[in-house]
Amino acid sequence: MKAKSLLDLQEYFHNELVCAQYLEQMRWDGKPLCPHCGSEHHYRTTTRFKNPALKDYKDFLCKACGKKYTVITGTIYECSKVSLRTWLLAEYLIANHKKGISSLQLARDLGVTQNTAWFILHRIRASFKEDHEEKLTGITQIDETFVGGKNKNRHYDKKVKYVGREPSRVDKTPVMGLLNYGKVRLFAVKDTSYDELRGVINRNIELRSIIISDDLYSYRTLGESYMHFIVRHSAKRYRSKEGFSTNGIENVWSILKRGIIGIYHYVSRKHLQRYCDEFAYRFNTLSLTVVERFEDAIRRCGNARLTYKVLIS
């Protein structure tokens, strides 16, 4: 599939059967595996796929565990009344809009309701989440930012009394970023305390690796376990004595903030981590072409499926 534009994509995915066959290739490389037990031994049943548009697409029956499954079993598309064609077009739009796409705009583009588009967006964002099993080594830039409105822009009766950094701790959500050789990890954290930030660092960065940060007090003891280089932003310096800077992670914040301010306008604390996963995914796949990023997003469809009950709980 070589789609240079959304029009090419729509022409290629002209019906549900083509979408299902394409998804088979992306998910299993043409060799179906049972999502229940992992067995590759199966045969096609005489029953039809639940979607009425797929008249010629038959279910699979696993010879090992005896359970039926389809190409969408165990994926983010499972138990959805939205057509596969709509899902795949949504994947393309979400993966390739650099600053994101709002649920209202996605609803207009796909011809669905805003609630449906919002649910689709969050399911796809959940599939972008990385496991981060391997720790980072080498040189890592770390920094934190705050997501939320400015105190000066609030109505008089909603302003926070504190000044300086204090309002951020009260009504904004901090996000910590780790940038390592062009790949970023973003984490929505409770606060910028020593224990909270050090916990993220210890879980994600190998001991004795090089860490570059600003002069935030919470980073004061990093030199005990890591090779720590400090860029003293409080003194209006933007490079350390050794020539290191945090410009890379600052670039990540500019993209994140432009997306939130310009596209989403408001992001709640509850869902912020999924938005961070979305922006981190697009940043980490900048070297891929439009089609390659779309295919990579499709291959992630087997990641943990977010249910609507969990989403709104």
Describe it for me?
By secondary structure, this protein is α/β, with parallel strands linked by helices. The chain has two domains: 6-127 and 290-312, no CATH class; 139-269, Nucleotidyltransferase, domain 5, CATH 3.30.420. 38% of the residues lie in helices and 15% in strands. The strands form two sheets. It has a five-stranded mixed β-sheet with strand order 6-5-4-7-8, sandwiched between helices. Strands 1-2-3 form a three-stranded antiparallel β-sheet, with no helix packed on it. A hairpin with a 2-residue loop joins strand 5 (173-180) and strand 6 (183-188). The two termini are 39 Å apart. The relative contact order is 0.14. The mean pLDDT is 90.
Number of domains: 2
- Overall geometry comes to globular
For this structure, the quaternary state is single chain
Biggest pleated sheet: 5 strands, mixed
Mean pLDDT: 90
Write a concise synopsis of the structure shown.
This protein is α/β, with parallel strands linked by helices. 38% of the residues lie in helices and 15% in strands. It has helices at residues 6-12, 16-28, 84-96, 103-110, 114-127, 166-171, 194-204, 247-264, 272-284, 290-299, 308-312; strands spanning 42-48, 58-62, 68-69, 139-147, 173-180, 183-188, 210-214, 227-231.
Q: Topology of this protein?
A:
Elements: H1 6-12, H2 16-28, E1 42-48, E2 58-62, E3 68-69, H3 84-96, H4 103-110, H5 114-127, E4 139-147, H6 166-171, E5 173-180, E6 183-188, H7 194-204, E7 210-214, E8 227-231, H8 247-264, H9 272-284, H10 290-299, H11 308-312
Parallel strand pairs: 4-7, 7-8
Antiparallel strand pairs: 1-2, 2-3, 4-5, 5-6
